[in-house]
Design goal:
Elements (H helix, E strand, L loop, with lengths): L2 H16 L6 E2 L9 H16 L4 E3 L2 H6 L1 H11 L3 E2 L3 E3 L5 E2 L4 E5 L5 E8 L4 H6 L2 E3 L2 H13 L4 E7 L2 H10 L3
Parallel strand pairs: 1-2, 2-3, 7-9
Antiparallel strand pairs: 4-5, 4-8, 6-7
Length: about 170
């Protein structure tokens, strides 16, 4: 038994075989706790997602806990397409912590625009780790507008509680 990632990889392979155009994403929360073991697990998790050919991985609160240096290093090494439109590095002139948006084209030619957001309740933790979380609704409006011109379908991955996600969906058309 290969454990959780082995089972997930087998499931992903089945889905990809049955539906080659399936878009595989994570809305964040996959890194775990910030300690030595957690950092090792995070590296393994990101490597596994890369091997499974995830189309996009949104940054969540766990990425904030790990800090800007770790996020830069791990996502650069893993080559995973990461998205988060409202998380920026405070120590780098406001450079985005991840891609604001990505566009994935399916085999059928459908363009899927993908963006990620992190909830503003993580602002204090982000600030302590050298990152800033910009207002979520403004970021959502901006990326939806940007993606309308590039994509046929927009997928917004939001690392927020369900009621907040519903409120955001009602307030930001598109």
């Amino acid at each position: 038994d290969l454990g959780g990632f082995g089972r997930k990889a087998a499931c992903v392979a089945e889905v990809r075989q049955a539906a080659p155009d399936a878009i595989l994403v994570s809305a964040g929360g996959l890194l775990g706790r910030d300690d030595t073991q957690g950092r090792i697990k995070a590296h393994v998790a990101l490597t596994a997602l890369q091997m499974m050919n995830y189309d996009a991985v949104a940054l969540g609160a766990d990425a904030v806990r790990f800090g800007s240096r770790f996020v830069r290093k791990q996502f650069a090494e893993s080559k995973l397409p990461s998205v988060c439109a409202n998380l920026v590095f405070a120590d780098d002139g406001g450079r985005a912590a991840a891609h604001r948006t990505l566009v994935v084209q399916t085999q059928d030619g459908i363009r899927v625009g993908i963006a990620g957001l992190i909830g503003e309740e993580h602002k204090a933790a982000a600030a302590a780790e050298g990152m800033l979380i910009e207002p979520m609704e403004a970021a959502a409006r901006s990326v939806v507008e940007e993606l309308r011109a590039k994509a046929d379908v927009i997928l917004l991955l939001a690392y927020v509680r369900h009621p907040e996600a519903e409120k955001l969906a009602r307030r930001v058309p598109g």
